[in-house]
Task: inverse folding
């Protein structure tokens, strides 16, 4: 299965066979959050997508070093080279030290990602922790004639770079179009060309975050940190770099240019970009009033929400679409995702109640054996097709039908054999829990409590105390649990 993985490479626009530079080692860098506010759902989708990629690569046996940075300086409010630093601006508004802002929102980010059951990255470096390395790279770019200093600020010279390289090859932008779509320099701008971007910015007297440099007190440009940290922890060339599609230009394009300019080689073999979120068909944005935070989803405290949706329901909803496709939030879609998530959890519960021990082998059902093995293979085929979680979930639901057939007695373990049963069980559990990173949501021994209630329910039924029977059944149903009277005994499942 290892050799079958294919990735849609944003750099080439093609789906390519994944061949790590130093197999079995894989280096993956993902642009992390700018920690000046609560993490938004667009970011969450990106980090969930790369968490699944991280999990699947490890499942395939790769030794993955996953680096995801924290941007704690240098990201200006207009995402360009003008305006205030986002963190500095927040610190001024709330009369805080910038690192108080950083600490608060970094902790919030970690808490939210833990609620979504994501794995921590191997390394989580910060921009402020790598100021010296950023200054060193700026000096190298100046030495190579690809950067220039003006009044304490340093800019990357795109025209100088363009003489031997292709600025725009990642995003598909042409430098002529970029120049025609930007304002003319009017003598007030210190850049040589409007497309040049900041490597180091001179700090004005009121600017809070500043460091000494060969060019005076200032702070690094936003694009520089990822170039520096990617190289430091993963090498001059590494396997995967990812982030949201909105980062492709200018952020990732600038990263690529800086790396090529400094080291003479493309920094990344496979670029991966996640797509944006919409709400009822409209782009999600604060200005439209249709943007909501993860915690608003979990509490249902938002005018666009009919009710609360749990972290795992939300995660399942996001994984039902391919990471590169637009994802549209609606109450109907989230409600359907809740049913789908519960169905998978019911499948896990049912599967855990099955055992192949003591099973007598009967006449093999070759058709069922072939179907189950094919479904297990399909889970890998789907993930090997550019990490297609949507297709994978579809195959898991088909596998669940076989699990339920065994549970209801339509199919027996003896008919499919112990090996096929164990493969089905292992595949289902592995993909649901380890690859997709879903989990059962309960802080108590929920199963144990239900078992106690089932015992009381059974006793009431035997005593023909039907009022008590109805009370227990209706009470559990109100909590989303349905009791089932079966020939083999009393069973329960989450309401779908």
Result:
């Amino acid at each position: 299965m290892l050799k079958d993985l294919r990735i849609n490479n944003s750099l080439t626009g093609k789906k390519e066979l994944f061949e790590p530079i130093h197999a079995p080692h894989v280096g993956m860098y993902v642009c992390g959050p700018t920690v000046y506010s609560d993490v938004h759902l667009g970011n969450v989708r990106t980090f969930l997508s790369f968490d699944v990629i991280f999990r699947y690569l490890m499942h395939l046996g790769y030794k993955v070093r996953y680096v995801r940075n924290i941007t704690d300086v240098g990201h200006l409010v207009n995402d360009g080279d003008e305006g205030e630093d986002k963190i500095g601006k927040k610190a001024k508004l709330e009369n805080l030290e910038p690192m108080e802002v950083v600490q608060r929102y970094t902790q919030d980010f970690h808490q939210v990602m833990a609620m979504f059951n994501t794995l921590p990255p191997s390394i989580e470096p910060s921009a402020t922790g790598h100021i010296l390395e950023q200054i060193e790279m700026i000096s190298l770019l100046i030495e190579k004639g690809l950067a220039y200093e003006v009044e304490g600020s340093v800019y990357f010279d795109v025209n100088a770079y363009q003489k031997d390289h292709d600025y725009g090859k990642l995003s598909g932008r042409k430098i002529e179009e970029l120049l025609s779509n930007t304002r003319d320099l009017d003598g007030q701008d210190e850049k040589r060309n409007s497309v040049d971007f900041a490597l180091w910015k001179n700090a004005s007297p009121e600017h809070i975050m500043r460091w000494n440099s060969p060019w005076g007190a200032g702070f690094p440009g936003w694009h520089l940190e990822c170039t520096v940290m990617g190289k430091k922890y993963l090498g001059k060339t590494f396997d995967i770099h990812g982030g949201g599609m909105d980062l492709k230009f200018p952020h990732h394009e600038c990263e690529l240019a800086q790396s090529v300019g400094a080291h003479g080689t493309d920094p990344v073999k496979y670029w991966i970009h996640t797509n944006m979120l919409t709400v009822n068909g409209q782009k999600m944005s604060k200005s439209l009033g249709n943007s909501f935070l993860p915690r608003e989803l979990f509490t249902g405290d938002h005018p666009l929400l009919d009710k609360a949706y749990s972290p795992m329901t939300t995660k399942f909803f996001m994984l039902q679409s391919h990471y590169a496709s637009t994802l549209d939030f609606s109450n109907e879609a989230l409600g359907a995702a809740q049913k789908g998530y519960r169905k998978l959890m019911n499948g896990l519960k049912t599967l855990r109640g099955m055992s192949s021990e003591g099973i007598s082998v009967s006449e093999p059902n070759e058709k069922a054996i072939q179907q189950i093995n094919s479904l297990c293979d399909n889970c890998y085929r789907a993930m090997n097709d550019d990490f297609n979680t949507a297709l994978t979930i579809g195959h898991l639901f088909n596998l669940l039908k076989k699990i339920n057939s065994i549970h209801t007695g339509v199919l027996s373990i003896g008919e499919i054999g112990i090996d096929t049963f164990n493969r089905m069980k292992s595949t289902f559990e592995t993909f649901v829990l380890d690859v997709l990173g879903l989990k059962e949501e309960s802080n108590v021994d929920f199963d144990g409590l239900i078992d106690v209630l089932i015992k009381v329910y059974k006793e009431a039924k035997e005593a023909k105390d039907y009022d008590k029977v109805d009370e227990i059944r209706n009470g559990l149903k109100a909590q989303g649990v349905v009791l089932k009277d079966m020939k083999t005994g009393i069973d329960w499942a989450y309401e779908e």
In short: The radius of gyration is 27 Å. The longest helix spans residues 413-435. The chain has a mean pLDDT of 92.
